Amino acid sequence: MKLGALFSGGKDSTMAMHWAVKNGHKIACLITLIPESRESYMFHYPDVEFTKQQAEAMNIPQIIKKTKGEKEEELKDLKAAIIQAMKKYHIVGITAGALASNYQKKRVEKICDELNLECIAPYWNYDDNKYMNEIVENNFEVIITSVSAEGLTSDFLGKKIDAELIEKLKKIKEKTRININGEGGEYETFVLDCPLYKKRLVLRGFNIQKEPNSAVLAIQKLDFMPKNI
Questions:
Q1: Which domain holds residue 145?
Q2: Domain match, 106 and 147 both
Q3: Among 2, 28, 45, 63, which residue has the least CB neighbours within 10 Å?
Q4: How far apart are CA 103 and CA 211, in angstroms?
Q5: Is the pTM of this model over 0.90?
Q6: What is the CATH number of the domain that holds 173?
Q7: How far is CA 121 from CA 113, 115, 170, in A?
Q8: In the chain, pLDDT over 90 holds for what percent of residues?
Q9: How confident is the model at residue 47 (pLDDT cuts 50, 70, 90)?
Q10: What is the pLDDT of residues 107-135, one digit of tens each?
Q11: How many domains in the chain?
Q12: Are residues 16 and 67 in the same domain?
């Protein structure tokens, strides 16, 4: 099927795309909503403006739409962006990186039902440990770009998800009951490289913004590099 991918730049939306391609589907475009508010119920906030570079790295066209990030109202913006993708790229379905959030999944499915589109969320209710291990096994280079949960300090910002980091998340979970996959908003991520990329991204500049109960890695500069170098 020709699909549009709901794309935030993080691991979950990218993993959903990766699954779709491995299973014979074509990603015709990326669909990215940029919320003006950090309080968005639906959309990823940190560093989302750098999804343009990720789209270039994958050589996939991107539809970008801004939204105020207001509850429910932002769904109208999402629907408009999906309709634009249908008209321009003739998609018949979308991929979504939903892992366990009923709020997000039900609303995306409702829009798809209204537009007669398939909704593919391949990692819905997937085993947390297996999912995190698959990110590493599939050669994803993913960094943490925000933290907002007990036990996750600013020291985690910029760290790559690898076997060692996964073990650290598991130990924190034993004490604080976080979701190790970050589905509860405990942390956000940015994908620098994966099998979908034609060239990889390298982080060249950033700053750390700390708040009372959270911290964000604000990307300032990314460079493109050839693969395998």
A1: 140-226
A2: no
A3: 2
A4: 26
A5: yes
A6: 3.90.1490.10
A7: 14, 17, 24
A8: 78
A9: confident
A10: 999 999 999 999 999 999 999 999 999 99
A11: 2
A12: yes
